[in-house]
Design goal:
Helix content is 25%, strand content 28%. It is an alpha+beta fold. A hairpin with a 5-residue loop joins strand 5 (53-55) and strand 6 (61-63).
């Protein structure tokens, strides 16, 4: 099952040769309606920030559980993606700009690679710098394939190898509250940065 018709699912050739499928369950939203374009209510209460330790773009260990205590805006990208991922990163950068000094101090942005076989820390750092996204408070995370699959499962996602080398990438991002539970889900290629910022401000109180 895919995430509503508003979630863009794009198929393209990419050397990785994997398929990412996104459905409901885990940490994804339920059948709640759209409040604004690309923004959906969350109904699932599962913990989306468990004690899984990944590695950031500076080769530092980061436990997802350690990110609790503040809002977290999270998406899933990979550096060899020729289409949606750079656009998603650009949209996240727009949110980062609106956050200003709140980024890193009160809010964390997280981009997790779905291509851990290729996207090691140095590759993620290069990607982030090339897109003006290597900022304090914005983590680009990778890990072992098993770890990444564990994280994807929290959002009811999974990676599946595809013989023809194509990748189906469902574009989605999630706002988590300070307890690691989902507050909102977004179609990141549609939602306005100002909408995400307003949601973050509501979480901050």
């Amino acid at each position: 099952m895919h995430v509503r018709s508003t979630t863009a699912v794009l198929t393209f050739a990419a050397g990785l040769g994997a398929v990412l499928a996104l459905g409901f369950g885990g940490c994804s939203r339920g059948p709640a309606g759209v409040d604004e374009a690309g923004s959906y209510a969350a109904v699932n209460t599962k913990d989306c920030l468990p004690a899984i330790t990944l590695v950031d773009q500076h080769d530092r260990d980061v436990s997802l559980a350690s990110l609790k205590g503040r809002p977290v805006l999270i998406d899933f990208i990979y550096t060899m993606c020729p289409g949606p991922c750079p656009l998603m990163t650009s949209r996240m950068a727009a949110v980062a700009k609106l956050l200003g000094p709140k980024l890193g101090e009160r809010v964390t942005l997280v981009s997790i690679s779905i291509d851990p076989e290729h996207d090691r820390p140095a590759v993620l750092e290069k990607y982030a710098r090339a897109r003006g996204a290597d900022e304090n408070g914005w983590l680009f995370l990778t890990g072992t394939p098993v770890q990444i699959d564990q994280v994807l499962a929290l959002y009811d996602m999974k990676r599946m190898r595809n013989a023809d080398g194509t990748l189906n990438h469902a574009a989605a991002s999630f706002l988590l509250g300070s307890d690691g539970r989902q507050v909102r889900q977004y179609q990141p290629l549609e939602v306005k940065a100002s909408t995400v910022l307003a949601d973050i401000d509501r979480v901050l109180g």
